[in-house]
Amino acid sequence: MKKGYQKHRYRDNLAGYLFVLPNFIGVLVFILVPLIISLVMVFMDWDYLQGMAGIQWVWLDNFLQLVHDELFWKSLENNVIFTGITVPAAMLLGLIIAVILNQFVYLKNFLRVLFFLPYVSSIVAISIVWSVLYNPTQGPINQFLKSLGVEQVPGWLASQHWALPAIMIMVVWTYTGYTMVLYMAGIQGISKDLYEAADIDGATKFRQFFNITMPMLKPTSFLIAVTLVIATFQVFAAVSVMTKGGPLNSTMVLSYYIYVQAFQYYKVGYAAAMSWVLFMIIFIITMIQWKAQKKWQDQF
Question: Is residue 47 in a domain?
Answer without folding.
Answer: no
